Amino acid sequence: MRVGVISDTHNPSVGAEPPSEVASAFKGVDVIIHAGDIYQPSCLDWLEEIAPVYAVELGADAHFRDDARVVDMARVIELEGHTVGIIHDLLVPGMVQEVTEFTPLSKHFPQDADLTSALEKVFGTRVDIVVFGHTHYPVVEEFQGILMLNPGSPSLPKQINRLGQVAILELGPDSKSAQVLDLSTFTSVHF
Hints:
This protein is of the alpha/beta class. It has one domain (2-185): 4-Layer Sandwich (Purple Acid Phosphatase, chain A, domain 2), CATH 3.60.21.10. It is built from five helices and eleven strands. The chain has helices at 21-25, 41-48, 60-64, 105-108, 115-123; strands spanning 2-6, 31-34, 53-56, 71-72, 74-79, 82-87, 129-131, 139-143, 146-150, 165-172, 175-182. A six-stranded mixed sheet has the order 4-3-2-1-10-11.
């Protein structure tokens, strides 16, 4: 299974919809995960033209109160035999800062702590993949058997208004891997 992963689209403040390069990067994906800072349902409408979308949003009640789609603050889904926890603002119990490329779990998670148990407190169940956003910094890190993925932002990477990143999550019954994609290497498309 091929999963498109996006976060921090911030529409409409950076544009009416995500950058059109996202459509090229997500060509052929089976589903899309949006890890928050969506702000308006039309962003999900745009993404749903590509593939079905699972989304979370910090303050989901304010933005999606009248929307028929399920958009929660956090959710857990099953994909290709994997349990995926999705949240916008990930605060891992036991860490004093957010997970970024500068603060990886391998260096900042307490050495005597169990990541599975810590994340179970966040999601209410065991997960083997965590998709999150909020920081605008892409992260792909596997730690204690859990794949952590933050795709960055397609239009505000590292809080700078320019073309950014999305990610692709490749899942098989016994495999999981993720890759961050730089949108500047994709062609702009319109549909």
